[in-house]
Each structure stands twice: as structure tokens, then as C-alpha cells.
Design brief:
7-stranded parallel β-sheet, globular, single chain, alpha/beta, 8 helices, 264 residues, 3-stranded antiparallel β-sheet
Length: 264
């Protein structure tokens, strides 16, 4: 499913959809495991999730929400998310210090984490390393295994079952830190987290990334993509014309990914 619009409407539509899935996961499991995307595009989406979603947008989409999630001030009424029950993970990370401008953790920390009442124990960032990348990937994979072993019903086919994975996409069709032509990474069938060397990345360098089997094992996968330079790629991938590219290889077991795209 592809949903397009202005930047403002795309942010609101994606936030409402994600909020609905969060409420559903918590109602079913008691918590929601949410994987965040990196880059710059999700900044406004994360701010909207932090600020809350207008009830009118949720209602317009036919999304229900708990009455106790509604907060009212003199100026606004919004549906706030239950951050005490949301567990945050990352789909990929650039191997830079956590306070580096290119850090995916830093972007999420500034636009989301510092503005919501989420407990520290609910936050699972990828390691920030400048060497020993394979060790770092193994360490994060073990952290995920520990979490999902504790919540046993959320593992299937030897892989975790995240409730929601948010992904971006580059103009070349890469997603997370899985790049076109990286055969070893795209064919990985056992590991949950792998080190990536991305000379074509922005910036070039080493990264950590969840693997395709992990992403495709999620209950819900949401692509959130912005930019006129990605228009043709979004069109081709959602039409099934570029299934050889990483973003085209995202096929969740429980259904197709949902795409939110704005050229603005």
C-alpha cells in the first residue's frame, strides 16, 4: 500500500498509522517493540509521535484509541502514546560516536527520546564503535536475543518478531544499511545483526544493520520516505519492478509493507 501527500499530511498519516499499531500491540502483548529508522527524514515523524496525534486524524482513518490516551490543554487535544510500554530499538547505526551529527541514535534522542516519558530501560540503542564492528554486531544481536528470550512468544522461525519496523529508503533503493550489490549482506540467513562497509553510504564508512530475515519477520513494516529525488524509485519498488534492490526485498511474512511518501 502506498500513501502519498504533502509533507504535513504524510507525517500525520504515518504517525496515526504507527500509533494505531502501537495501541494494538500493547493491547495484545502488554508492550510494543518499535524499531526506529535513521537518517534525517523521520525527524518530523518522531516529533509528531512525541507531541501526540490529533484525535480527528485518528478518527478520520478509522483508528480507535483508548480514552485515557487523550490529553487536553487550553490550545490542543492530542492522543498521547503510552511510552512506559514502548520498547525502542534501531534498524541500523553508523559507526560514529553517539553524539556525532550522523548518529541515528542522536537524531532519535533529540527529536523523540528527550521529549517523552520513556524509561531508560526501554531504550536499546545499537553500539557506537569505531572498531571491532563484528563484535559490536554480535553484542547487539545478543542483547536482542536476551530481550526476546524474556518475551518468548515474540520469537518465530529463529528470528525476533518486532511489532513495528520503521524504514527509510535512499535514492539507490537501499534501506536500513542494506545496500544494492552487497550480496553477502542481502543473502545473510542466520544472523540478526551484521556489520556493513558502505563506501556508497552518506557518509561512507562502517555501519551496523538488522538483516533482511529479521525485518521481514516483523508484524508491521512502515516505509517513511521523503524527497522528489526518490519519487521514481518509490514508484518502481511499490509496483514490484525493483525486487532485486534491498527496499524491494522487504516482504513481511504477515503482509506487504505500508509506504508513506511525500516528494516535498
Amino acid at each position: 500500500m502506498l500513501i502519498t501527500g504533502t509533507e504535513k499530511s504524510t507525517v500525520s498519516d504515518a504517525a496515526a498509522y504507527i500509533a494505531n499499531r502501537i495501541f494494538r500491540a500493547i493491547d495484545s502483548n502488554g508492550f510494543c517493540s518499535l524499531v526506529l529508522s535513521g537518517g534525517s527524514s523521520p525527524r518530523k515523524l518522531y516529533r509528531r509521535l512525541a507531541e501526540g496525534i490529533p484525535p480527528s486524524i485518528m478518527q478520520e482513518k478509522g483508528f480507535s484509541f483508548p480514552e485515557n490516551a487523550v490529553t487536553r490543554t487550553l490550545d490542543t487535544t492530542s492522543v498521547r502514546l503510552p511510552w512506559q510500554s514502548i520498547m525502542l530499538f534501531w534498524g541500523d547505526e553508523r559507526c560514529v560516536p553517539e553524539n556525532h551529527p550522523d548518529s541515528n541514535y542522536r537524531m532519535a534522542h533529540e527529536s523523540l527520546i528527550t521529549t517523552v516519558p520513556i524509561p531508560e530501560r526501554n531504550i536499546f540503542p545499537m553500539p557506537h564503535v569505531s572498531e571491532n564492528y563484528d563484535v559490536a554486531a554480535t553484542r547487539y544481536e545478543q542483547e536482542l536475543k536476551n530481550f526476546f528470550d524474556k518475551h518468548g512468544k515474540n520469537r518465530q522461525n529463529s528470528f525476533p518478531v518486532f511489532d513495528i519496523v520503521i524504514l527509510g529508503m535512499g535514492p539507490d533503493g537501499h534501506t536500513a544499511s542494506l545496500f544494492p550489490g552487497d550480496t553477502d549482506a542481502l543473502e545473510e540467513s542466520n544472523r540478526w545483526v551484521i556489520p556493513i562497509y558502505a563506501p556508497q553510504g552518506s557518509p561512507p564508512g562502517y555501519r551496523l544493520s538488522l538483516t533482511l530475515p529479521v525485518i521481514n519477520n516483523a508484524r508491521t513494516v512502515v516505509f517513511f520516505v521523503m524527497g522528489e529525488n526518490k519519487k521514481n524509485m518509490v514508484s518502481d519498488i511499490t509496483a514490484g519492478l525493483k525486487s532485486n534492490l534491498p527496499a524491494g526485498m522487504i516482504n513481511p511474512k504477515d503482509g506487504k509493507p505500508v509506504w508513506f511518501y511525500s516528494p516535498e
